[in-house]
Amino acid sequence: MRDRKLPNHVSCWLAGPLPSDCRVALQRLATADDVVHLAVMPDMHLVEDVCNGVAVATTDLIYPQAVGGDIGCGIVAVAADSTARPLEDGSVSRKILDRLSDRIPGNRHPAVTAAVELPEELARERLSNDRLTKLAERDGRVQLGTLGRGNHFVELQRDAEDRLWVMIHSGSRGIGQAISQWHLDRARQVSRQRLVCVSASSDAGQQYLHDMAWARRYASANRRAMLRAVEEVLCDVAGCRLDWASLIESDHDHLIREQHFGRDLWVHRKGAQPASLDQPGLIPGSMGTRSYLVRGRGCAESLSSSSHGAGRALPRSIARQQIGQRQLLREMHGVWFDDHRCDQLRDEAPSAYKDVQTIMRAQRDLTAIVRELRPVLVYKR
To answer: What share of the chain is helix, strand, coil (3-state, %, to 5)?
Structure first.
């Protein structure tokens, strides 16, 4: 659908009225040099200069801000060889939460030994700058298998057949942020525009593409390291393992060369996941609400993209002002989580996010629902 106040090459799938600050940001992005198409997802919300929940296509210019800082941030889900019934026992769920806290830190592993190493294919590849390479060797190692904070999560879920699923949302941690910031700072040395860009064919562009691809692989390795830790916890506490053949993974902060409208384009996605025809995808709700396994419909006007989640309804500062601990506990009724961290998690309450069912209805021509998952246990830092 079109928004009459935005240029004709902007396509929108909105779940409600478009806020004025978002319209200004979208107008700025849509009219930037070399932007040929912009798709706006229903979970869109403003984050710095570029909204989360957009896919933007160019012919040559690269806009790092339209990828974002957490390069390769994404979601992975895999089924277990068990039902979710063991988690109905409070002692089992509490033990799982305690073990996850030990095995999956928020930031850095408290004691990193020589046995904790980057995957070989990442360790042997140098980044475009010596400082970034050293940072990858140091922080990349100690942050591998860590969750991060904010909307990142490990969630145990059940499907309609009561099968247990594990879903993880996390990204490239500090190294992805460092890569993004280094390339932004470099681009700003030659451009005073609010949205900075480089040519994909230039040395700077090629170096960004190389480092961005590395960060995407690191983010995937990070998620899989956490999956292995979750499997060990589930095996030890509940006697079940993961069915790795069922694994689905999708990232939503990236830049990919794709063909759209009959030509090759650079597609930037910031908080938007690929949704080409029949492509598997994952759309989580907020903490404590349902999530979806989906397949893409390959909608051309959306650049074969869809939302990556529910999207924030309230900025974190406003959520903390409006949502108290008692409200969070009410909203999380029936879902196990670390209630000792109620105060820290108030800005992640379900009511701080848009309704995921409304989001799904708004993008019915972008994705088809394959499976609905309901939360049983949520682990956040």
So the answer is: 35, 30, 35
